[in-house]
Specification:
alpha/beta; Rossmann fold; five-stranded mixed beta sheet; about 30% helix; globular; Pept_HybD-like_dom_sf
């Protein structure tokens, strides 16, 4: 059974930004999720988390769309990928213990349903200890927010 799922035809989106806010650019996912929360749209739930954990699978099972946001050192531009097998693997280089695909698989296995999902990857160059974003990452925040607006407006 899906946890706390109501019979609702309203669109619902879960935004999950993740990363370490004490490792400079790695915290950009959390920052963007916080900014999305400030939109105060009734159909969007936005979480800023340090890491993706299995408990999030229950939340994923209750929404129609999910957007994951993370720092990405392999590009100089914001990338948006539908979560398919063709998405680049980033978790090993960033030290995360889980990834969006594994959470979606867990939601499907445990609750029988998983939402359509996208991965928004924000360029990052500095993973040293600190709480300031590099100029590259700071500039990409506005671009990422626009791409997220596009994803939720198409819904």
């Amino acid at each position: 059974m899906i946890p706390n799922q109501e019979k609702n035809t309203q669109p619902s989106v879960l935004v999950i930004g993740y990363g370490n806010t004490l490792r400079s650019d790695d915290g950009v996912g959390q920052q963007v999720a916080t900014l999305v929360e400030e939109w105060k749209l009734p159909y969007i739930r936005s979480y800023a988390v340090h890491q993706l954990t299995p408990e999030l699978a229950a939340e994923l099972a209750t929404v129609q769309r999910a957007i994951f946001i993370d720092a990405y050192p392999e590009s100089t531009t914001v990338q948006v990928y539908p979560l398919t097998d063709e998405v680049p693997e980033t978790t090993n280089c960033l030290g995360h213990t889980s990834n969006p695909r594994s959470l979606l698989t867990l939601a499907k296995q445990v609750y029988g349903v998983a939402p359509a999902a996208w991965w928004v990857l924000i360029p990052a160059v500095n993973f040293d200890f600190g709480e300031q974003f590099s100029p590259t990452t700071q500039a990409a925040i506005a671009v990422a927010l626009e791409k997220i607006k596009q994803l939720v407006s198409e819904f």
